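A quick aside before the break. I want you to see a complete sequence-to-structure record at least once, exactly as it would be stored in a machine-readable document. Don't worry about memorizing anything.
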Amino acid sequence: MSGKSKAAPKRASPFSMTGFGRSSQSERGIIHTVEIRSVNSRFLDLVLRLPAGFTHLESEIRKVLAAKLHRGRVEVTISREVEEARDEGFHFNESLLRSVYAGVAAHLENSEIWSERVRESFVSALLQRREILEFEAVPEDITEEKGLIFSVLADALLSLLEARKAEGASLGKDVETRVSFIEELVNSIEARQGNRPAELQKRFEERLSKLTSEREIDPERLALEVAILSDRIDISEEITRLKTHLSKTRETLGLHPCGRKLDFFTQEIGRELNTISSKAQDSEIQHSIIEAKAELEKIREQAANIE
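That is the input. The structure line, written in tokens, reads:
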């Protein structure tokens, strides 16, 4: 056996759901550009905008995106631009133009508003209608462009993922820092809880001595009452579960995707903090719980941004 120890695998970083990626390539006088924007969403929501003639690629494009993205609203815009002037054709429906113009003129020819300026504006407006005048590029075999489109898409997607990873790493560090702070608070709560039985017994003795004056206090009865109350306010199980959830939260940050698991663990941590708050009748513990809840709320906000 070799004496060398294997290096620990590098832990993955969480990905943010927010990012932007763009790529553009030109081939045979045609420029294809892909822009991808993503924002927060509980699920994966893909919105595609494709140029005319390329809608048949939508299903394949969705598969490419879904293989790399897990959560977020993702808007993909693919544009196609001709670099140089190319032969173009147009469709001109002269009969429709004449028919519409004649119909309107018949109603307005004796009206003061049917001036030369109005007639010119009316014809200009009609020429803007696609039903009358439509320019269209000479049909081409666009299947030759499919490879280029997916190449540009891959580059834009890589750019998006890099942006999401960079922001995700920052979010992950922030969450981990807050988890560590909550762990410190939990440790202080645990230490404080360990002193509670002795404090309760002392408090009982003081109260009973005031009530009983010179009568002797039954030590066995006192011990029993302290034990009963200590059991009611015991939070050892909650602390154990809380530590486990915090540890799992830290481990989850090394997974991808991890956003939904973080959502789950923040709910569990919040549940345990609430239980401790209701059981522990102690001002110091209550103060620590308030601080922990404030940090947990920050973690929730960050988890909502993580894929």
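Two observations worth writing down. The beta strands are 19-27, 30-39, 44-49, 72-82, 88-92, 133-137. The chain has three domains: 19-85+141-161, 88-137, 167-303. We'll return to this after the break.
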